[in-house]
Write a structure and sequence with these properties.
It is built from eleven helices and 15 strands. It folds into two domains: 192 residues, von Willebrand factor, type A domain (Rossmann fold, 3-Layer(aba) Sandwich), CATH 3.40.50; 154 residues, Jelly Rolls (Sandwich), CATH 2.60.120.380. It starts with a helix and ends with a helix. A six-stranded mixed beta sheet has the order 3-2-1-4-5-6, with helices on both faces. A five-stranded mixed beta sheet has the order 7-8-15-10-13. Helix 3 packs parallel to helix 9, helix 6 packs parallel to helix 7 and helix 7 packs parallel to helix 8. It is an alpha/beta fold and 439 residues long. Pfam families: VWA_2. This is Ca-activated chloride channel family protein. Keywords: Membrane, Transmembrane, Transmembrane helix. It comes from Micromonospora olivasterospora. InterPro entries: CLCR (IPR051266), VWF_A (IPR002035), vWFA_dom_sf (IPR036465).
Length: 439
């Protein structure tokens, strides 16, 4: 039995060698490489809990919001994987006065980020009582400092029932600043109150950092969602996308190897990247831009692959995913298909393609363009989050279309179809005439 995995492994090995030999073959720097090695750092998560006065409301399963949050925290701490480093920060938990200047500085870390002492953590959460203001922006900035920096992505899980009452700093702007620093920080938000203004603010915070927003309407929903997010820190964000900077022109663009990359793009901007593709290989690329701020209704994302001389090879327009916070586009392009098109245009018979290892790569320019326009008062900086996925695989044959035949076969089929149609039409006509005369 033939082992189908062997050719794939050989092709991947050749591609890896080609990437490493990029400076020799292409006369330029080696392609940027997405992080693919398993990180040695443990996942780091900080739970940020709103303990402001509004958390006294008893509207979740007949219980107060704070008691539901405390129960969820206890269950999460009990189920916490041993390798996860967890911290807990609160806001609005200590100041009982009415001085807003003082109350808007009220945020503390009650459990430091590290291996969790479960008894100590649950005792610290149990003593919390709803008290003061809601400085969400300051708490997010402080939580990012608590988590520090590292090679892996870190996660903040924000649980709140109200919007920030202390801006500035505006929490959405803080989230954008943290994302723009390239610190690989993801903020997930959980809303405990069915309020539209709160929802919009929490969605904005999550979108700015590539996180998620969830409305928790019961104790079970809150517990299950926090557990999912803590597990996701371990399972899906062990390695963050590689930060790369696109350029205004293709000749200066960074070289990319297969992987996942993140960048920032201004409104109505074009950002260029380069990918080497050899004959017999196929480029597959996709891009997603997060709408982390208000934009006008008419917008779109375009991903194009061009030759270095500017000739367009293929384009992929924005895809309707059903979401309004992320717009994506994708494309596929085969070096062999483009070569066959050129040979056909010249009227010559295509010559056999050289082997992948020996062939000189085609430098493909990828350009990400957007047609976003900000609404009045929307800040243009930092740019919107862009995630670019690049892969180079063995070329796949184009899908076969319907084939009715050629030459005499097609003529015979058409003749038979005409005869059958004429015969049926004649019989129906004679039957109709005979019936009409009888009547």
């Amino acid at each position: 039995m033939i082992d189908k995995r062997r050719p794939t492994a050989v092709l991947r090995g050749l591609l890896a060698a080609a990437v490493l030999l990029g400076p020799v073959l292409l006369g330029g720097p080696a392609p940027a490489r997405a992080e693919g090695e398993s990180p040695t750092e443990p996942p780091r998560v900080e739970l940020v809990l709103d303990v402001s006065g509004s958390m006294r409301a008893r509207d979740i399963d007949g219980r107060s919001r704070i008691s539901v949050a405390q129960q969820a925290f206890n269950e999460v701490v009990d189920a916490l994987p041993d390798e996860t480093q967890l911290g807990i920060r609160v806001l609005g938990a200590t100041y009982r006065g009415k001085d807003k200047t003082v109350g808007c500085q009220d945020t503390q870390q009650i459990v430091p980020v590290g291996r969790v002492d479960r008894t100590q953590a649950k005792a610290a959460v149990a003593t919390l009582r709803p008290t003061g203001f809601t400085p969400v922006g300051l708490a997010l900035r402080s939580a990012a400092q608590d988590l520090g920096t590292g090679a892996t992505a870190r996660r903040i899980v924000l649980i709140t029932d109200g919007e920030d009452t202390c801006a500035p700093p505006d929490p959405c702007e803080v989230a954008r600043e943290l994302a723009a620093q390239g610190t690989k920080l993801v903020v997930d938000t959980l809303g405990l109150a069915p309020d539209e203004k709160v929802r919009r603010q929490l969605v904005c915070i999550a979108n700015a950092t590539g996180g998620t927003y969830t409305a928790a309407q019961s104790a079970d929903e809150l517990t299950d969602r926090i557990k999912q997010l803590v597990d996701r820190a371990r399972d899906t964000y062990t390695a963050a996308p590689t930060v790369v900077g696109g350029t205004p022109r293709c000749p200066d663009a960074p070289l990319l190897a297969p992987g996942v990359y993140t960048d920032r793009e201004q409104f109505s901007e074009h950002r260029w990247y380069r990918v080497p593709v050899r004959p017999g290989e196929e480029l597959r690329a996709s891009v997603s831009i997060a709408l982390d701020r208000p934009v006008n209704p008419d917008y779109g994302v375009l991903l194009r692959a061009t030759a270095p001389d500017g000739r367009e090879l293929v384009r992929g327009v924005d895809a309707g995913s059903g979401r309004t916070d992320v717009v994506s586009a994708g494309l596929r392009w085969s070096a062999a298909a483009d070569r066959d098109d050129e040979d056909t245009d010249d009227g010559e018979t295509p010559s056999p393609a050289p082997s992948t290892a020996d062939a000189t790569p085609t430098m493909v320019c990828l350009v990400v363009s957007n047609a976003f326009a900000p609404r009045p008062g929307t800040r243009a900086t930092p740019g919107m989050p862009v995630e670019l996925t690049v892969d180079v695989v063995a070329s796949s044959p184009p899908p076969a279309g319907p084939d009715l035949g050629r030459g005499w076969i097609l003529l015979l089929l058409l003749t038979l179809a005409g005869l059958v149609t004429g015969l049926l039409a004649g019989l129906l006509t004679r039957w109709w005439v005979a019936t009409w005369r009888e009547n």
